[in-house]
Amino acid sequence: MSKGQTSQALMRAETRLQAAVARIEAAVRKSRTTPGGQIRAERDAYARDCELLRAECDGLRRELSGVIERHAKLETASREVERRLDRVIGELGEMSDE
After folding, report:
1. Rounded CA gap, 46 and 58, in Å?
2. What's the CA gap between 50 and 6, in Å, rounded?
3. Which residues lie in coiled coils (predicted)?
């Protein structure tokens, strides 16, 4: 590498280093402006939201279980009605043949 190329590579590296330092400084400034109390409050809010969502999910599971149970009962009743209707239709057919 020639002296000119070395100088250019060094300048590019220095530019990248300065950009990285600027990003780090910005991150540090941002962390200083976000107080620990605010971070804890946000974390606590997220924890409350998670608990509320868990409770809602549990409630929805219970509702779904009830719906599934009612569906099974309706399905049983529907089969019984179908069976009875088939029997009555058969009896009516026999009566009309007489």
Report:
1. 18
2. 56
3. 10-63
Largest CA distance in the chain: 117
Say what the pTM is.
Answer: 0.50
Residue 92: which pLDDT band, with cuts at 50, 70 and 90? very high
Which token pair is 97?
A: 């043949």
What's the rounded Cα separation, in Å, for the pair 11 and 3? 12
The amino acid present at 39, given as its one-letter code, is I
| Cα–Cα distance measured from residue 46 to residue 54, given in angstroms and rounded to the nearest whole number | 12
- Which sequence spans correspond to the domains of the chain? 1-33
What integer pLDDT is reported at residue 22 of this predicted model?
81
* Buried-exposed string 57-66: b where 16+ CB fall within 10 A, e elsewhere: eeeeeeeeee
Please report the DSSP string for 61-86 in residue order: HHHHHHHHHHHHHHHHHHHHHHHHHH
Average model confidence (pLDDT) across the chain = 84
